[in-house]
């Protein structure tokens, strides 16, 4: 299983590199939109929509909301407002996980899916359009490295040293030891990023820490909805990984904080 998981991850990483650095920004945004719609198709099951027609309607609703959000946002106050609202949603999700992880219904799950997927796509798309002083694709790839490092660090640390369960009712396999290992791996990438991008280490690493912690919340939030829906994986399209949502859940939660943080650091002109 590990070999299959690694092989799938390698293919996905290669595709990400192509989308970010080989395609024009518009084509990359379109590819990410397709991923958004595929994620919406999987999320529809969390909302109790199991028939193809119902799931298609949910996908179309996601596409419509994404189109409106894209049309109404540019870099500046409108985008900042959308991403701030999305960051606020993830703070609510954290409280939801901590206090009422079983208080879910299909309507709440449906709305949550829009809050998860739409701002993430808009944030990624707007970031890809950045050309100076650093290409948006480079910033996005750095964020992915943060998330991947945290995920890999948590996986191997938890596997070898995990004893204390992090959220047994939501995701029994996750441990506090794994969380610590993931955070340390993410901080190592953040420190390297500060050197590479030539930014002051303290605020840059602090942003990396926020992104890593947000990625954990995204992962656990999807697990919460999967458990509510009685699903082990969101789908089966990715061998060794499950569904698309199982791979992008941490990314969707990281995007709002990362793009807002870059703005506060003055990295987006």
Quick tags:
269 residues; mainly alpha; two-stranded antiparallel sheet; globular
User: In terms of per-residue confidence, which ranges show pLDDT below 50 for 5 or more consecutive residues?
Assistant: none
- The number of helical elements comes to 9
Structural domain tally? 1
N-to-C CA distance: 44 Å
Could you spell the SSE succession in H and E letters?
HHHHHHEEHHH
> How many DSSP-defined strands?
2
Main sheet: strands, sense, barrel: 2 strands, antiparallel
What radius of gyration results from the CA coordinates? 18 Å
Q: Strand sequence of the main sheet, in spatial order?
A: 1-2
In helices, the fraction of residues equals over 70%
Shape field: globular
What would the average pLDDT be, to the nearest integer? 92
Secondary-structure content class: mainly alpha
How much of the sequence lies in strands comes to: under 5%
Short note summarizing the structure:
The protein is mainly α and 269 residues long. It contains nine helices and two strands. The model has no long low-confidence stretch (mean pLDDT 92).
Describe what you observe in this structure.
- With 269 residues, this protein is mostly helical.
- It has one domain.
- It has helices spanning 2-22, 25-43, 52-72, 77-99, 106-128, 136-161, 176-197, 201-229, 245-264, and strands spanning 165-167, 171-175.
- It has a two-stranded antiparallel sheet with strand order 1-2.
- Helix 4 packs across helix 8 and helix 6 packs across helix 8 (201-229).
- It starts with a helix and ends in a 5-residue tail after the last helix.
């Amino acid at each position: 299983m590990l070999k299959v998981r690694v092989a799938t991850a390698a293919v996905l990483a290669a595709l990400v590199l192509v989308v970010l650095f080989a395609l024009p920004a518009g084509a990359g945004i379109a590819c990410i939109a397709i991923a958004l719609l595929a994620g919406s198709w999987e999320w529809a099951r969390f909302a109790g929509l199991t028939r193809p027609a119902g799931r298609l309607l949910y996908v179309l609703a996601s596409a419509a909301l994404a189109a409106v959000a894209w049309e109404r946002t540019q870099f500046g106050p409108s985008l900042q407002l959308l991403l701030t609202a999305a960051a606020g949603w993830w703070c609510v999700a954290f409280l939801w996980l901590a206090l009422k992880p079983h208080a879910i219904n299909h309507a709440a799950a449906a709305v949550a899916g829009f809050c998860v997927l739409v701002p993430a796509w808009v944030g990624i798309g707007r970031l890809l359009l950045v050309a100076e002083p650093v290409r948006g694709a480079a910033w996005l790839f750095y964020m992915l490295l943060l998330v991947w490092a945290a995920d890999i660090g948590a996986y191997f640390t938890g596997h070898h040293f995990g004893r204390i369960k992090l959220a047994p009712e939501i995701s029994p396999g996750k441990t506090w030891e794994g969380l610590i290992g993931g955070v340390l791996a993410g901080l190592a990438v953040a420190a390297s990023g500060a050197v590479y991008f030539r930014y002051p280490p303290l605020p840059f690493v602090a942003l990396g820490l926020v992104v890593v912690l947000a990625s954990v919340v995204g992962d656990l939030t999807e697990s919460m909805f999967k458990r509510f829906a009685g699903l082990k994986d969101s789908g089966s399209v990715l061998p060794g990984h499950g569904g698309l949502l199982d791979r992008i859940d941490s990314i969707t939660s990281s995007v709002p904080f990362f793009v807002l943080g870059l703005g506060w650091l003055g990295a987006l002109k």
